[in-house]
Amino acid sequence: MRARRRAMRTSSILIAALAALPVHSAEPQAPVSGASGAAAVNPETPLLQSSDDSMVTLTRESPAQAARSKEKDAAAVHKAESLLKMHGYVDAAKEAARVLEADPDNAAALVVRSEAYSRLGRCAEARADAERAVSLDFNDPRAWRSKAWAELRLGNFRDAVNDSTRAIQLDPRNAVSYAVRAYAKEMNGDREGAIEDMKVAAQLDLRFQERLEASQKGGQLYDPGMDDAYLLADVVTAAPGSSPVKTLIRVLGGMFLLLGGCLLWLVFRRPGQGGKKKAATWQDNLAGSLDEKGVPMPRAAEPQAAQNGRLQGKYELVRTIGRGGMGDVYEGKDHSLNRAVAVKKLAERYAALDPQARERMVQEAKTVAAVHHPAIVQIYEVFEAEGALYLVFEYVRGKTLQQMLAETQTLPLERAAQVLGPVCQALAHAHKQGLVHRDIKPANIMVTEAGHVKLMDFGIARSLSAPPSAPVREIPRNATPMPVLISAQYARTATTAGTPLYSAPETQAGVVSKQADVYSLGVCLYEMLTGRTPFPPPGSQEQKMNMDFLPPSLRVPELPPLVDALVLAALQPNPDLRIKTPDEFQARLEAALKAPRAPAS
Predict the structure, then answer these.
(1) Fewest CB within 10 angstroms: 336, 511, 525, 560, which?
(2) How far, CA to CA in Å, does 75 sit from each of 27, 109, 365?
(3) Pair 458, 381 in one domain
(4) CA–CA gap between residue 428 and residue 456 (Å, rounded)
(5) How far apart, in whole angstroms, are the C-alpha atoms of residue 59 and residue 77?
C-alpha cells in the first residue's frame, strides 16, 4: 500500500507538471511585421464592414499556417492522452476541450474527452462525444470502443455488445474491446459468452487474467461500482519497493540491452536471413480467425477422412470462417469444378449418434439439399466420413443481417421489406417441400455483395413427415394455453432447437410447425425496425406467452399502425391464431409499406 501511495503521489506530481506545460508547435512563429506590431495583411484578403463601422479582416490560412495549426492540435491531443494515461481525467478533458474549441471535428480529441468523461462518471456526455467521433470516422475502433464503454455504464448492454463487436472487427487484437464485450454480455444474461470473451482478453493482455480466474470461480466479471481503471486494466502499476527513478533506470538498461542484441544480430546473421518471411505469431493467427461476432475460431485442421489432403478427393479446406452449436464451417475449394465452396462439419455430439439416428440425420440433410431456390444457400453435397457428417454449400460473400444491424442499429421499413421479402419467398418454397427452417434469425440471413438475399443454415431444418427422434414428452396443460396438435401442420420432436430469443414458444415443447418460422420472422422485423428484440435476452417463455412487448410504433413513432398489427399477428403465442404462412406475412408487410405514416419526430 505504501508503494502504491508513493506511485500515486508521483503520478499526481507528473500530472500537475504536465498540465502546466504549454503546447508548442514544431514550426517557429511567423515574424511580426510593421512598426506598430500589427500582423501583415495580404492585400488580396477580402474586407467586410462590421456593424460598428470598423473594418474586419477575414484572413485565410496559408498551407504553412494550416500545417502549424494541425501540428499544434496533435501536440495538444498527445498531451491530453498523457494526462489520461496518468489518470488526470479532469485535466485530460480540459485539454481535449481546448482542441475542440478550435476544431470541433477533431475526432481524436473527441475520443480522448469521451474516455475522460467515462472515468469521471459523465457517461451521457461520453456517449455523445463517442457518437460524434464515430460519425467523423466510422472505421475508428477506439471510437467504437469508447461508445461501447459509455453504453455499458449507462446500462444499454445490447448497444454495448454491438459497439464492442464493431471495435473487434476493426481491431481484433485489442484486449479492452473483448473485455468490454464480456462485461456487456454478462449484464445481458450471456454468462458463457462473457467468459469466452474474457479468455481472449486475458490471452491478449495478461492483466485481465485475474478477472478471468475470479469469474471461473463463480465471481462476477463486471461490477458497476468498481473503478474503471481496474475493469479496463489501465492502472499504472509499479513493483513493490520500486521508485520512479529505479523504474527509469530499468527501462534505460533494457533499451541498451535490446540495442546491443540488435547490433549482434546484424553482425552475425547469415546472408539472406533478413529477407525471410517472419513466422506468424499467435496473435496473427488469432486475428485471422474471427467469426462474424469477433470470436476466435479454430484453424482449419486436416480431417482424417481427407484423401491426398482433400475431402472426398476434391474439397480442400482453406480456413475456418464460422462456428456454432451445429458445427464448424470452413472456406474450401472444389478442385473438380474449380469453385469456392463452404464446408460444414457437424459437431461431434451430433456425429456420435446411434446408427438409426445418424441415418435419419443424413436423410434429412439430403432432403434439404434437394430444395433449390434463389434465396436459399444451395447444398451441393452431403457425405459421411470418419464418423462425421459433412455438408458442402454454395460459398456466399456478403454481410449477415446481424452484421448490418451491428453497424446501423436499425433499418428503414423499406429496407427491412427488401431483405425479408426474399426470405419469406424462400421459406414459402421450403414449406411446400415439407421443411421448416427452425432457426430464422439475423445471423442466418445474408445480403451478398451483389445485393441478393440468401437464407442460410438449414442445418436444423426438420421435415414435417419425419418421425420424432425420441419418445414424445407430454406437455402440462398449465404450461401452455394453446392446444398442441399433431397433424399435417404440426410435428413433434423430443429435442428443442433454434435460438430462444427468436423462437416461438411452442418450440420449447418440441413442436415443429411452419408457423414457428413466421414467429421468428416477426421477431426479426421488430429488431430491424427498432434496434432491439421484442423481449429482452434471453427471451423468457413467460414474456412470450403474455406478449409482454411494446408495439414498434412506440419505439419508432413514424411507423404506420399496420406494422404494429403485423407484429402482433406474427407474435401470437398460439400458432392457430398466428399468421399462417410466410406469403401472408410478406403481403401484410408490403401493405404496411403503402400505408400513410406519421411524420418523423
Answers:
(1) 336
(2) 12, 11, 61
(3) no
(4) 15
(5) 26
32 located within any domain: no
The Cβ of residue 415 has, within 10 Å, a number of other Cβ atoms equal to 15
Dist. CA 526–CA 550, nearest whole Å: 10
**301: which 3 cell numbers?**
485442421
Whether residue 473 is predicted with pLDDT greater than 70 in this model: the reply is no
pLDDT of amino acid 255 = 61
Flag the least confident range among 2-6, 325-329, 586-590: 2-6
- Residue 58 included in any domain: no
CA distance 73 to 66: 11
Distance CA 546, CA 535 (A): 11
Q: Are 368 and 446 in contact (CB under 8 A)?
A: no
Tell me the C-alpha distance between 379 and 125, whole Å. Answer: 50
Same domain, 121 and 143: yes
Residue 386 carries which DSSP code?
A: T
Rounded to two decimals, the pTM is: 0.49
3-state secondary structure of 59: coil
Buried b (16+ CB within 10 A) or exposed e, 64-73: eeeebeeebb
Structural domains counted in the chain = 3
- The strand pairing partners of 324, in sequence order, are 327
From CA 556, how far away is CA 601, in angstroms rounded?
9
Say if residue 597 is exposed, middle or buried (CB neighbours under 10 Å; 0-12, 13-18, 19+). middle
Phi, psi of 3 (to 5 degrees): -65, -40
- Using alpha carbons only, how large is the chain's radius of gyration in Å? 30
| CATH number for the domain harbouring residue 210 | 1.25.40.10
The parent domain of residue 319 ranges over 315-394
Model pLDDT for residues 556-568, shown as the tens digit of each residue: 999 999 999 999 9
In whole angstroms, how far apart are CA 156 and each of 140, 161, 524?
21, 9, 20
d(CA 106, CA 352): 57
User: Are 475 and 543 members of one domain?
Assistant: yes
Per-residue CA distances from 3 to 6, 7, 87, 236, 475 (Å): 5, 6, 17, 12, 64
Task: Summarize pLDDT for 255-292 with one digit per residue, the tens.
Answer: 666 666 666 555 555 444 444 443 333 333 333 444 44
C-alpha cell, 328? 464448424
**Which residue type occupies 414?**
E
- Nearest Cα to Cα of residue 500 among 484, 523, 525: 523
Would 99 be classed as within a structural domain?
yes
Q: Is the pLDDT of residue 18 over 70?
A: no
3-state SS, residue 392: strand
Task: Answer for the pair 130, 110: CB distance below 8 angstroms, yes or no.
Answer: yes
